[in-house]
Amino acid sequence: MSAEAINLLGMPQGELEALFTELGEKPYHARQLMRWVYQRGVTDFEAMTDLSKSLRQKLGDKTVIDLPQVLSQHDSADGTIKWLFESGFGQAVEAVFIPEPDRGTLCISSQVGCALDCAFCATGAQGFNRNLSAAEIIGQVWHANSVLPRRNNDAQDFAVTNVVFMGMGEPLANYRQVVPAIDILISDLAYGISRRRVTVSTSGLVPTIERLGDECNVSLAVSLHAPNDDLRDRLVPINKMHPIAGLLDACWRYASKRQNRYITFEYVMLDGVNDRLEHADQLFELLEGRPAKVNLIPFNPFPGNEFWRSPTDTIVRFQDRLRERGIVTTIRRTRGDDIDAACGQLAGKVSDRVRNRLSEKRRRMATA
Ligand code: SAH
Ligand code: SF4
């Protein structure tokens, strides 16, 4: 294999077909390859028995299927599983699997850190490091599907039925790599997940919301967290560039591109900050008569943070206030508390134990 081997992981069908043509091969082999890699979890070209020997040889010489390296797996008592993936320079990104009777949701990361610096978020507190590649994004799904048992023991019934971009990073700030990853999630040659079951969560990059609506049209969740600009400026600083009115206009346009499409508004409940009934009333004014659902997220604390979680009865009262005026409002159940897998707690810290294991592995590789 040459030093510049091309990584086929994360390459959408069109690009793969072009690559096969460039290699002097028929483009339909791209479809075979995708089925092997994503549906059967096979990454060794030699095992791809319906490709000719000479094609397997060519692929082995010029290309590679380079999976992200898994540093550790953490299993929660409630069934939630978190993986740390190596992302260079002692950093890691995290993916979290949340099993439920009727679905398996994988929460994936799109960046190492995040530049948007929301006041209540551990990833934001860490600062921005770099964008993940499409291979590193889809690699999280590949790994979960390859280690978890298929649902109902059916070969096509992947453990991951839903994917949410709610891990580390702002997916719309890494649009160029997120779109090919979405292509693979929804492709029938790969995971075949419906657009409705893929959710991009954004803090509100308005121009990119427009693009996403035109080009992908997956489900959209918007991290609103405050019902007026003064408060949102403080909690979600990107609001100073894209204030609420323009953000909501973009949301309604997004929703109108497909019928019966609701936008989910995430609202983290911070004690004494944004959780009063007058805030619920302001939120109602913003969302009244619109295709909107609200998801209240109990704040998940992390070290060195200034906020407190709203008491449960405050969260329930806030929910009731919106519900009685006709806004569908849910409260997110916090899962994986014992393994720091909850929203906003993902900081990609590589523990000393893992770091030691990693440097040991590197040492072994260097001396091999
Ligand atoms: N950057 C994207 C997606 C990743 S964050 C976004 O901001 O939407 C996923 C969700 O977790 C967002 O709604 C985010 O606001 C929320 N969140 C961040 N920190 C949190 C915390 N400490 N407690 C609860 N939710 C948090
Ligand atoms: Fe970034 Fe989202 Fe965290 Fe804000 S909440 S800092 S946008 S990851």
What can you see in these coordinates?
The chain is an alpha/beta fold and 368 residues long. It is 36% helix and 19% strand. The chain contains twelve helices and 14 strands. It has helices spanning 13-22, 29-39, 53-62, 122-126, 134-147, 175-186, 206-215, 229-235, 244-256, 277-287, 312-323, 352-367; strands spanning 6-7, 63-64, 70-75, 81-86, 92-100, 103-107, 111-113, 128-131, 162-165, 198-202, 219-223, 263-269, 292-298, 328-331. The strands form three sheets. The chain has a ten-stranded mixed sheet. The protein has a two-stranded parallel ribbon with strand order 1-2. Strand 9 (162-165), helix 6 and strand 10 form a beta-alpha-beta unit. Helix 1 packs across helix 2 (29-39). The longest helix is centred in the C-terminal third of the chain and has 16 residues, at 352-367. It is elongated, with a radius of gyration of 22 Å. The model is unreliable at 352-359 and 361-368 (pLDDT under 50). The protein binds S-adenosyl-L-homocysteine and iron/sulfur cluster. Residues 118, 120-121, 166, 170, 201-203, 223, 266, 268, 297, 299-300, 343-344 line the site of S-adenosyl-L-homocysteine (SAH).
